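notes to self, project folder thing:

trying the whole complex as one job this time. last attempt i did each chain seperately and stitching them together was a nightmare. two parts in total, labels are on each line so i dont mix them up again. if this works i'll redo the older ones the same way
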Amino acid sequence: MGTFDEHPRGALHAYLDRELSLEGSLEVEAHLAACGACRRELETYRALRRLLQSAKAAAPEAESALMKVTRNVRARRRRVYAVGGFGAMAAAALVALMVVPKLNDGVVHEVASVHARALDSGQSVELASSDPAAIGQWLSARLPGAVPPAAGGDGFALRGARVDSLEGRPVATVVYQVRNHLVDVFAWPSAERDMEPRPSVAGRWTVCRWAHRGVAYWMVSDAGTDDLKALATLIKDRRT
Amino acid sequence: MDDESREFERFARPHAAAALRLARTLVRNEADAQDVLQDSFLRAFRHFRGFSGESPRAWLLSIVRNVSFTLWRKRERDDPGELEPMLESEPDPAPSPEAQLLEASDAQHVHAALDRLPHLHREVLVLREMEECSYREIAEILGVPIGTVMSRLSRARGQLVRELVGDPRSKN
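result (full assembly):
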């Protein structure tokens, strides 16, 4: 008989899980030899284990999620490193705040590639909605302090939202449609001074960086510069 | 510069599926689980160079757990019951052996029964029986002593057996 005066409750589980020392295992085995109730209990837990293992689901999509994250990181890093060799990710946010004007070329590329990727993936929005309140709620559940979107109007339809990564930080992306063009509007709270929207054309995309009342914006679309200006005006009006 | 993200892929890839399964165990809704997973990878990427422990898996899964709980706190009002700490009551008497009945259960049953357990029981079972984590890894993931892992597993198994096949000794 082993050293257990009573049934080896926790030790039985540790035995099942092969977590006991040799000595501990021998003690449990000595008890098991003498105790039918514990033998049956152990058998029950072994059956439970087989059952749980058979219920284990494959999760191949987890790898795609990992690849998506690292791809985004690489897209962002290429730019940050090209600028000044800032190594740490933590520096990225700082870089974005302090040297945005110098980074603009790189950021333009990033903005454009985020937009292009969203279009290519066929998932231009993660949340499809034309309701600014619903979008605002969805965004703030993911990004504390997310900027609520402006309602559509003046030919711009609100289509929905995504969360993207831009300049090393997560940003709320609100998607509008004007005629047959989608416009991504990236927005995040910022202490920078107001900046007028002056859209420019970069390759096949029109992009525009501006700031208004504590919110910084990037917009990107294959719509024209006038469209982006009009949308910026709409957003400003709706936010005042 | 790309090396770091490639290195992170090698670091995290073997544990990606486990991370998603744990996320699903903890948040129960697929969209949330995907969000938790992505957020966890991002956080892990920011810090994995500083990781010096023994088990990358335990480290990654502990991040998944923290991210899940952060999400809960945001939703606290929607689902207050989920956040109540589980009562660490005395273990019930050993369940009657029901191995044969368990053999007859299917995956759907198991997941439904798991869902009825408190999250502290759910996660410890998933980590041990599906991911085959050691007690030490589980202790690291949950941030509790190894003795707690053992007692929690003991209760969780007992409770899951009762959920699946009932306890013949119970009064109801």
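what i see at first glance: Chain B touches chain A through 56 residues (CB under 8 Å).
need to look closer tmrw
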